[in-house]
Amino acid sequence: MADHGADLAGLLADSQRQWAEKLKKVIDESHGMWGAGDLKYAVHDALRLPAPQGDPGKLGGLAAAYSTARSQLDQVQMKVEKVASESLPNAWTGQVGEKAAEVVKASADDLTRCRDMLGKGAGQLTALAGALSEAQALHGRGHAPLAEALALLHEITVAGAPDPFHWDDDKMHTAKARAQEGIKPIVDAAVKAETAGRAAVRELNALASKALAGRFKNKGLGAADKLVLVDAALDGNQVYGSILTANDVTRAGQAMDRMSEADRVRFDPLFAFQLTTGGRPGDPAHDNGEAAKARWGEETRRVYDTRAWWHFGGGGMWEWESDDIADDEIGKHTGAEYRNVDLGSRDKRQSALTEIERVIDDGKPAPVSVRGDGGHQMMIIGHRGDQLEIYNPWGYTVWVSEADFVDNHMGGASDDSLPNVKSIRLPK
Predict the structure, then answer these.
(1) 336 in a domain, yes or no?
(2) C-alpha–C-alpha distance, residues 325 and 304, integer Å
């Protein structure tokens, strides 16, 4: 399913939508005799724009294949679940029997997840095929009025200038009206294809990120262990998501393979656990509120307080300092090296969404810089549907819609004081 998500990225008609919108703007703003040349070239270019790319028939066939596989898995899942709930407990008791039941239950749960993912994938592909077919038909409706407009403009212009011998105001007005009539369905088609493509890529990438069992590569776990661990990782409240992300699983396996036997026994505490308890849980000298606050302050100063003479007495950090910190403080845990991506325009924010979703679904948080009454950095840490989960180091986590992210309405994540998205750090 991950491969299909990657292929679908080619359906995103960013450049086509942008070109169509630019041509529409030229057509709308071309007036009178001295606008005839611009109108003529814009209409000519609009006629050359291809229809949204993709094959609805192949997408529909792929959706049908997913549905068939889902039906087959459904039959197998029911049989395995019956073994887990009825046959095995009646035939096998004791600790070994309990272990066997645990594995069989995990197998049934995994089959259920696979069945559901295939069903959701089929639904996304079916929706995309339908939207793409509609977009291609819509695009075709623009050609006749655009061709009529171009024919009229040829009659009243010479190259890119008005023809003084054949100029006709009425023909210019008619040509513009027909051009506007023709460019509208072309713009609408590009928007429809882009929107449907983004939704499909977003959801398919999210489904692919949940395929965790194959990410366990470490030598110390057998197939049954991996299956049971994945079952535990995903057996939680769906509102809050799974315990482990795909990147967590991969990194955990790599870390376990590097461990000596002594390291496996000792196994250092998690970072947050270290901050709150000092690594000595239950010790009143270390495991108390004041000590935890002090450790938090020290860690904040170590990471964040990068003030030097080039800050001219101010606090915070520059973008290049943020890149280095992302590599040092996030990359060493996620295995990623970060780069700065400018998000200074709506199109840049829209284009970056697919990659942001994929990175977050893979368990790699992304620092995002915002502006307004000053500057600030927050962290995108989660993704669900068309919502992004934002951690604000002021002490809270909020969900914002992707539409608000694209339209620079991020004030909801920062007391309305920092609504504008400036840049983001994404893995290379």
Answers:
(1) yes
(2) 9
Number of structural domains found in the chain: 4
Q: Domain boundary at 176, 208, 240, which?
A: 208
Amino acid at 403: A
For β-strands 338-342 and 374-384, DSSP reports them as unpaired
Phi, psi dihedral angles at 113 (to 5 degrees): -65, -45
Q: What is the pLDDT of residues 2-46, one digit of tens each?
A: 344 433 444 344 478 889 999 999 999 999 999 999 999 999 999
Residue 357 · residue 197 · CB < 8 Å: no
* Tokens encoding 17: 């939508």
pLDDT in tens, 377-389: 889 988 888 889 9
What domain range includes position 61? 2-208
Residue 311 lies in a domain: no
Give, for 162, the enclosing helix (H) or strand (E).
strand 161-162
CATH number, position 372 = 3.90.70.50
What pLDDT is stored for residue 137 in this prediction? 97
356 with 384, same domain?
yes
Alpha carbon separation from 31 to 25, 28, 43, 148 (Å, rounded): 12, 8, 14, 18
Instruction: State both tokens at 268.
Output: 């250092």
Residue 372 vs residues 159, 280, 288: alpha-carbon distances, Å: 48, 42, 37
Q: What is the C-alpha to C-alpha distance for residues 132 and 192, in angstroms, rounded to an integer?
A: 8
Residue 156: closest CA among 171, 146, 177, 178:
171
Q: How far apart are CA 368 and CA 123, in angstroms?
A: 32
Q: Are residues 250 and 291 in the same domain?
A: no
Q: Is residue 310 part of a domain?
A: no
| Pair 108, 163 in one domain | yes
Q: Is the pLDDT of residue 59 over 80?
A: yes
Q: Which residues of 197-225 are buried (b: 16+ CB within 10 A; e: fewer)?
A: bbbbbbbbbbbbbbbbbebbebeebeeee
Check if the beta carbon of residue 83 is closer than 8 Å to that of residue 207: no
**Residue 295 burial (CB count, 10 A):** 17
Same domain for 70 and 166, yes or no, is: yes
As given in the structure block, the two tokens for residue 351 are 């284009």
What pLDDT score does 240 carry? 43
Taking only the tens place, the pLDDT of each residue in 253-262 is 667 667 776 6
Are residues 35 and 106 both part of a single domain? yes
